[in-house]
Amino acid sequence: MPYALTLIGGVMGEITGRLTKKEPLACLASVRMGKYPHYVSIDKAKRELGYRPGPIRASLQEEIEWFRAHGMV
């Protein structure tokens, strides 16, 4: 999606959020952060927290359920 279009969506999300006094689905800060690639490693979580990633399908299903439970989908 073109950055200019997402930027407009972020601005509209902020305006709508202020008018409705609800959390916007997209905010300007999120859109701006999304412009740049972000790379992270899970090595520290594995080492310090004992994190073990699960199957992608189960992880995505769990995430979808969380978003639904919190009214975000």
Short description:
With 73 residues, the protein is mostly helical. It has helices spanning 3-20, 28-34, 43-49, 56-69.
In DSSP terms (H or I, runs of 4 or more residues), the helix count works out at: 4
Strand content of the residues, in percent?
Answer: under 5%
Name the shape in a single word: extended
What are the secondary-structure elements, in order, as H or E?
A: HHHH
Question: Low-confidence runs (pLDDT<50, min 5 residues)?
Answer: none
- Average of pLDDT: 91
Helical content, roughly?
55-70%
Largest sheet descriptor: none
- Structurally, the number of domains stands at 2
Compute the gyration radius: what is it?
16 Å
Alpha-carbon distance between the termini? 20 Å
Q: How many strand segments?
A: 0
Going by helix content, strand content and strand pairing, the class is: mainly alpha
Can you walk through the features of this model?
This protein has 73 residues and is mainly α. It folds into 2 domains: 1-38, no CATH class; 40-73, no CATH class. The chain contains 4 helices and no strands. The chain has helices spanning 3-20, 28-34, 43-49, 56-69. The longest helix has 18 residues, at 3-20. The radius of gyration is 16 Å and the shape is extended. The mean pLDDT is 91.
